[in-house]
Write a structure and sequence with these properties.
Helices cover 50% and strands 11% of the residues. It has a six-stranded mixed β-sheet with strand order 1-5-6-7-2-8. A two-stranded antiparallel sheet has the order 3-4. The chain is elongated, with a radius of gyration of 23 Å. This is DNA polymerase III subunit delta'.
Length: 349
């Protein structure tokens, strides 16, 4: 019986996304030639579809009768292996991810993976396992994974996903073939969002994609959760707070309408854009906040601007201790308002 944290991999439509074309075609060709690496590392920012790409490759690895499409060979969707894959999940394709109780992949999960890798395939010619967040392996789990990466059975393939910018043991990276998954160009991203979110306006789709740093899946989430309007409310509240036109309790209300982690994401995005405004104003991602950010960047030394980013990082660490979101957010908004003072000007009152 499968370890409850090593689940059968399942997808209703295991196909690559439009912007995966060249990378997927190259990897699919290597599967057909018998040259697919036994350990692959897909690296890229959140929201560019690393999971979708890996799942499409996993489906192709177990499929009995691949068919040719514009992006290369894909799983046929009709054979016994594909029916298992799109049903309750394929027994020879497994998913390993952080548990609900933890942000980390634990050592017992990696041990279950090692057992799975040494077993013979149950129904397919090959076995494949997808590790959804290699950057969230705890140290013991990461070390345990090394042996499986060093000596993978001939019929076993591991696909590791890594969020760009997050730490990963060099010893794991060196044992995998690293592949970069990039975001699409703006035109492709906006067009895909139009298909996925037909009720949204073209302007909102573009705004969501910009706020998501070009990552279409994150932009889709923003649109579906109606975060565009909420973020605009937050921007107006912050702008008013900078002018002392509202109270702390009033300014924080729009931020409290979204999950605390997402409010921190928003403030962190603006903090990143504030740094960009100081170095290269045209690089600001949030066009609606650009005027405010350029103004603030022009009033302070770049070293002072970094304080709002550090404030968000500190608030994230505090999430582990059940901090009061309202008080934390008010404290962060106060850091932004402090940027209105010229350096050397003491706080009044």
């Amino acid at each position: 019986m499968a370890d409850p944290e090593l689940l059968p991999l399942q997808a209703d439509e295991p196909e690559p996304l439009p912007w995966h074309g060249d990378l997927y075609a190259s990897m699919a060709r290597r599967i057909g030639e018998g040259l697919f690496p036994h350990a692959s590392l897909l690296t890229g920012p959140a929201g560019v579809g690393k999971t979708e790409l890996a799942t499409a490759l996993a489906a192709l690895l177990v499929c009995d009768a691949p068919v040719e499409r514009g992006s290369g060979a894909v799983a046929c969707g009709q054979c016994k292996q594909c029916r298992l894959f799109i049903g309750e999940g394929h027994p020879d394709a497994r998913l390993l991810h952080p548990t609900d109780q933890s942000r980390f992949v634990r050592i017992h999960q990696v041990r279950a993976l090692a057992t799975f890798s040494m077993e013979s395939p149950q129904v397919a010619r090959r076995k494949v396992a997808l590790i959804s967040r290699a950057d969230q392996l705890n140290l013991n789990a990461a070390n345990a994974l090394l042996k499986t990466l060093e000596e993978p059975p001939a019929d076993t393939f591991l696909i590791l996903l890594h969020r760009a910018g997050q730490p990963l043991l060099p010893t794991i990276r060196s044992r995998c073939q690293a592949l970069r998954v990039e975001a699409p160009d703006t035109e492709t991203g906006v067009a895909w969002l139009g298909d996925q979110c037909p009720g949204s306006s073209a302007a909102d789709r573009l705004t969501a994609l910009q706020w998501a740093g070009g990552a279409p899946l994150e932009a889709k989430r923003l649109l579906e959760a109606e975060r565009i309007g909420q973020r605009r409310e937050c921007l107006r509240a912050l702008q008013q707070y900078l002018k002392s036109a509202n109270s702390p309790s009033e300014a924080v209300q729009p931020f409290l309408k979204m999950p605390f982690s997402e409010a921190l994401d928003l403030l962190q995005d603006w903090a990143h854009d504030l740094a960009r405004a100081a170095a290269s104003p045209e690089a600001i991602r949030d066009g609606e906040a650009a005027a405010m950010l350029r103004f603030l960047a022009g009033r302070q030394h770049p070293a002072h601007l970094h304080q709002v980013y550090e404030g968000v990082r500190e608030a994230r660490r505090g999430m582990e201790y059940n901090v009061n979101p309202e008080l934390e957010l008010i404290g962060l908004l106060d850091q932004w308002r402090a940027l209105m003072r010229r350096p050397g000007v003491a706080k009044q009152g």
